[in-house]
Q: What sequence folds into this?
DNA sequence: ATACATGCAAATGGTTTGCAATACG
DNA sequence: CGTATTGCAAACCATTTGCATGTAT
């Protein structure tokens, strides 16, 4: 069985949730895409397949997937919202260019370690995290000069 | 002159913004509070003083203060939004308990350093950042056992 | 059986926008 | 003076909710 399905089922088991056709389809569809996506587009896409999915169900499932750490939410400075799968269940962080809007990814194990230690120091049990850095990308910085 | 006022004026100068009575009052009022606050409450509070402040102006100013790094935005898992001043202009990060909703702060210089390096590595010029860790605080973890 | 999940449409709530009036540089 | 800013109310848009029906366990 695919790893993300297994993880989701484990999560649902732990939290008293039920495994449903819709939830699995939504997860599968999200995991087919490697890049970030908007919910509205996603709903169009998944509805085009076969079943009908209500907006409510998609959002309800997204919330659970977030909790389960299987997807990440990305917020732009101007309020746009994207989601994306968590590659290999290893969360990565985002740099958002305030000028062109492009989104870059960074992955730093050392940061993970430090944050885990910081949490442990006060007995906090982390479930998932969100790290966004807003600024200007190289292209936009040099273009301005 | 107070440091935050000075920083804000510098920021406005750089970005072609104007220094207005409202902006300064909003900044001052925010800096009187050390804890996080909701915008709606804030508007009530500042309106109670002397002037009228439109919701729009408050939001427009908040956006500029965010860009200037003078305040930080906090997002709870269930969508509540708080803002708070950035103490001494040193951004700190937030741990949010998904059970009791309490918000903890952490400050780790080493994380700052690592992130700065990661940005520099791809030529990204960071302006401000948002780092939230969601999970369970010590009290809620032990209470559950 | 009996919770939990779904779909629908309406509601929510934070934030933004258009426009005319006003104030900064 | 010209341009950014303000206030107002209406608009926006992501997300949530109430309720009747459906379904996993």
A:
């Amino acid at each position: 069985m695919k790893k993300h399905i297994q993880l989701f089922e484990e999560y649902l088991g732990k939290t008293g949730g039920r495994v449903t056709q819709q939830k699995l389809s939504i997860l599968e569809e999200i995991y087919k895409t490697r890049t970030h996506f908007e919910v509205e587009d996603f709903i169009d896409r998944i509805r085009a397949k076969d079943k009908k999915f209500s907006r409510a169900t998609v959002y309800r499932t997204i919330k659970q997937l977030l909790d389960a750490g299987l997807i990440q939410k990305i917020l732009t400075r101007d309020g746009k919202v994207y989601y994306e799968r968590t590659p290999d269940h290893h969360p990565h962080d985002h740099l958002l260019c305030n000028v062109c809007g492009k989104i870059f990814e960074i992955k730093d194990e050392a940061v993970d370690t430090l944050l885990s230690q910081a949490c442990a120091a006060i007995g906090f049990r982390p479930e998932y995290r969100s790290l966004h850095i807003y600024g200007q990308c190289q292209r936009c910085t040099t273009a301005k000069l």
About this structure: Residues 97 and 136 of chain B are 5 Å apart (CA to CA).
